[in-house]
Amino acid sequence: MLDNPVSKRYSKGRLKENKQMSNTDKPFRYGSQQDRGDVAHSVGDLVNVASNDRAQRQDGKFISDHELNLIEAHADEIRDGLAERDKPGNEKVLEEVVEALDELETSDKEHDAKDAEHDREIIELREIIEVQNQQISQLSQLIQQLGGDLGEGHQPKHRAEAEEAKSDLEFKSGDKVKVQRPDGHVENGWIILETFDDPETGKKMIKISNNIPDQDGQTVNELVPEDVLAEWQSLKGPNDEAYEPKHRAQGPGKELELWKDSNDSDDATKEFFKPEIPEELSQELQMATDKYAELTAKHRNSHFGHLLRSSKFIAKIPGMKWLAERANDMTDSHLDAARLEYQEAIQKIQSTIAGQLELQGVSLKEIRGATALFGIEHESVFEAKAVAERTRISGKTNKFVDWWVHQEGWKGKAKKALIVGGAGLAVGFTAGLAIPGIASTIAGGATGGLIARHVTKRRANSLDSEGRTLAERQSEEDLERKLAYHRELGEDEFAQTSPDGLTKVTEDRTATEKAGNRRRMKSAVAVGAAGGRLGGSLADMISPKPSTPEPTSDPTNPTPQDPTPPQGPTGNEFYVDPGNGYTNELIDFAQANGHNLTPQQAWDLHQNLVNQFGSDYIDIANKAVDTYTQNGDFRLVAPGNASWDPGVSDAIQQWMTGQGLW
Amino acid sequence: MGDVSDQEIIETLNFSGMSEEIQQRAVDAAHTTVELRTMGLLDEMLNDEQAGEFHTIKEQQGDGPAWDYLNRTLGADVNDLYQSTMRDYLEQHKNDQENLPF
After folding, report:
1. In terms of CA atoms, which chain A residue is nearest residue B73?
2. In sequence order, what are the residues at sequence separation of 6 or more whose Cβ sits closer than 8 angstroms to the Cβ of residue A414?
């Protein structure tokens, strides 16, 4: 961009002034003739300055204060526009950009729908995987209880399993503990009364009691933060190695050591059996659940039918009778088939678990209990998905469901049930961020039970420095994207119809860049094109473009074509959206340059770039480290403004060109 | 017909004699599913006009009147609906363990 320090010196103040004036719908006026003259001279390379210090067009007409203010505020863009316009061949480039913009706008809704669907599917898949893992983990714990009587000699299968078991050991109410004072003295007979999160410090606190009355007949209670405790466990690894204490005291001299009493360390010494559910069965159940939930939710009638067709009790409620009758009249072969598939998928896993338990000598009663529990717990996941699908389909559902889950619950049941069912709810509701309040509600009130503890851990892990949960952050970011989108729409509209829009576009460009990825890229093109058009328009106003001769049609004397200057990649600076990884950014980058990458192509490209530049070939603003490794994959640490490392954009272009994709 | 107790849930679903933790998980799962069903039913029963009125009452008068509005408008006490949905749920699942394929 051409630089003009004089223009820059003025532009900020004038822009502000202009904005204030436009807010009151009054025409902009300079405060004095001196001000007007100063500005006119500052853009003297763009306008004629008459002897009375008034700016003139080249046709001699005076330029209004409003126009002059715009010109001064956007002098750089205008200079660029003039320079670009006057370059041979660039007029065509500008037209192409404008055409591309028009095409993007034409297909906007279609892209939006696809994007939304894609985003929803990705988020939902992540949640489903998480919930399934959680279910299996919970089931494992349950069966560990059953398998606790398996007898001596049954060793943990894998070190990983033992590690997992170790990670699940934590202080909980009722644990008998030993307390070791800093001087080394060990006291027996203590018990953990409760554990809770201190709202002020955010630390997990543990309240312990010695259960021994003191001289006044009172038992002694102590309240200590978990992070100043050290926990001793007797867990041994498969090679008889001892594990380190789970909680190691922070800092010398001030801490207690809290040991789980060996008489109460059943969890640590228990022998474990973990069912192995084949991946294909897990996937089959997931797909069957999805399909059944989707079909159930698809039609209002089928949703009723799902609950009412075989109802004996709801149907007796006077207000519900007509609904039940209607449901009984309905037949839906697709839904019936989906229900059977779902039930069969559940039963396959139940049979697998039962077979493995049987081999371990677990009683039939316990086997039936464990497998039945798997079925009814998974049903809550299905039900959550069905409601979530309804939420997605029906706009009004959002409000009602949101209100519902924020109720304290009636008769003490509702809230607790929702809390414990949080994992299932999260499957549907956080997908697409339809009801962001739910996740935090679930986490905020979690008490007791395996699932609730898990949720509590998740909450603790996801709290940021401002005390917001992950769901809340996502919600805010989602809202910000939507606001940016609306701003962007307004900007585009203005930009194409009114010079005032250019001011808005320029002022809010940073905000615009925070919009969703594709939209952000589209916005960049749009702003650039609109700026180009307006820059050209203003430039034309100031300096009418000379007419150019028509190209000759004489084939014997062709007009030499100026070679199109090589176009380097654009979009080198961008915004990493929450949850995006390298491949997302590569796909967006390609789109910003008018090309497409499939996820597989993006992955191949990513591998190529890793080979060339290493795992960290991106620079996220204000982040000392940009990537981390998870499951062998490189991931981006945080959303934010970012750019490719030097040479990367060229390497992307080179690779895509080599693949015939550029 | 009174409210369904946790003990009734445990007994109907055949979790008697199992550990308290397993029983609690069964009870929680039942309540979760039933609450979702009840919520879905209520939402479906509200037509657009009623939904709008409900939200207006909720915004202007609070949750108490909103509950009252639901009970009055839908012709079905919400708690009755919940309890009936729970009983349907128990009816649906009471033979689960006997029907397992092993």
Report:
1. A319
2. A407, A408, B31, B35
- Of A328-342, A355-369, A551-565, B35-49, the poorest mean pLDDT is in A551-565
Backbone φ and ψ for A629, nearest 5 degrees, come out as -105, 135
- Do the Cβ atoms of A180 and A259 come closer than 8 Å? yes
Confidence at A319, pLDDT banded by 50, 70, 90? low
Sort A554 into a burial class: Cβ within 10 Å, 0-12 / 13-18 / 19+: exposed
> How far, rounded to the nearest angstrom, does the alpha carbon of residue A477 sit from its chain's CA centroid?
8
Q: Where are the beta strands (DSSP E) in A238-308?
A: 257-260
Structure tokens belonging to residue A156: 């943990």
- Among partner residues A317, A397, A401, which is closest to B84 by beta-carbon distance? A317
The pairing of beta strand A231-232 with beta strand A257-260? parallel
CA distance A62 to A51: 12
* Alpha-helical runs (H) found in A432-564: 436-444, 450-462, 470-497, 499-507, 509-512, 517-542
User: How far apart, in whole angstroms, are the C-alpha atoms of residue A268 and residue A166?
Assistant: 7
pTM: 0.39
**Residue A581 · residue A575 · CB < 8 Å:** no
When scoring B21, B32, B71, B83 by the number of chain A Cβ atoms within 10 A, the one with the most, hence best to mutate, is B32
Asked whether the ipTM of the predicted complex exceeds the cut of 0.85, the reply is yes
Distances (CA, A) of A535 to A283, A523, A546: 55, 17, 16
Cβ–Cβ below 8 Å for B29 and A384? no
Q: Concatenated DSSP letters for A24-35?
A: TTPPP--SSHHH
Give the whole-angstrom CA distance, residue A404 versus residue B46: 14
Kindly determine whether residue B37 and residue A350, on different chains, have CB atoms separated by under 8 Å.
Answer: no
How far from the centroid of its chain's Cα atoms is residue A375's Cα? Answer: 30
The reply to whether A449 touches chain B by the CB within 8 Å rule is yes
Contact B96 A372 (CB under 8 A): yes
**Digit-coded pLDDT (tens) for A418-450:** 333 333 232 222 222 122 222 222 221 121 122
pLDDT band at A290 (very low <50, low <70, confident <90, very high): confident
On the CB side of A41, how many CA atoms lie within 13 Å of its CA?
9
Residue A469 DSSP code: -
What is the maximal distance between C-alpha atoms in chain B?
A: 56
Give residues with Cβ within 8 angstroms of A174, minimum separation 6: A191, A192
SS3 call for A597: coil
Q: Are B75 and A142 in contact (CB < 8 Å)?
A: no
d(CA A66, CA A53): 16
Please check whether residue A376 is in contact with residue B13, taking contact to mean a CB–CB distance below 8 angstroms.
yes
Side chain identity at residue A656, one-letter code: M
Do β-strands A176-180 and A257-260 pair in parallel, antiparallel, or remain unpaired? antiparallel
Do B40 and A306 touch, CB atoms closer than 8 A?
no
Distance CA A311, CA B87 (A): 9
> Would you mind telling me the total number of residues written for chain A in this entry?
662
Q: Give the list of residues 6+ apart from residue A463 with CB closer than 8 angstroms, or none.
A: A202, A469
